[in-house]
Amino acid sequence: MILNMPSAKLLDHFQNPRNVGELPSPARTVEVMNPACGDLLRLSVRWEQDKAVAVRFQVRGCSASIGVGSAVAEWMEGKTREELRTLKTTDLEALVGGLAPESKHAAALALDAIRAQLR
């Protein structure tokens, strides 16, 4: 039996997370939770005009949520609100080289945090 192995990108972001932490005000920090698994993601973004100029994250959850949080925080820097509005979970899964079916909730959690930032 072959188990679904995480991608090299996901493992790298899990083992070496980037942009961990929280930004001070005037950054906006949102917190979202997956009620099914209990994973929690805090996403802190400093916006200038309509561009994310600094992004930090904190996760309490599984390795997939940590890896996706790191990848999203790194990727979001320099993106505009307009670019972020059109994201889908599959876009976020692609950032980490794909997710196993049991880990797809990590991309949904990150997308919820991005949408909360855009509100």
Task: Kindly state the percentage of residues in helix.
Answer: 40-55%
Q: How many angstroms does the end-to-end distance come to? A: 44 Å
Might you state the CATH topology name? Sufe protein. Chain: A
- The succession of helices and strands, N to C, reads HEEEHHHH
Oligomer: single chain
User: Any idea of the CATH class?
Assistant: Alpha Beta
- Beta fraction: 15-25%
Low-confidence stretches: none
Shape: globular
Counted up, domains total 1
CATH architecture identity: Alpha-Beta Complex
Describe this structure in words.
There is one protein chain. A hairpin with a 2-residue loop joins β2 (40-48) and β3 (51-60). The longest helix has 14 residues, at 63-76. Helix content is 40%, strand content 21%. The protein is of the alpha+beta class and 119 residues long. It starts with 7 loop residues before the first helix and ends with a helix. It has one domain (8-118): Sufe protein. Chain: A (Alpha-Beta Complex). The chain is globular. The model has no long low-confidence stretch (mean pLDDT 93). It has helices at 8-15, 63-76, 81-85, 89-95, 105-118, and strands at 28-33, 40-48, 51-60.
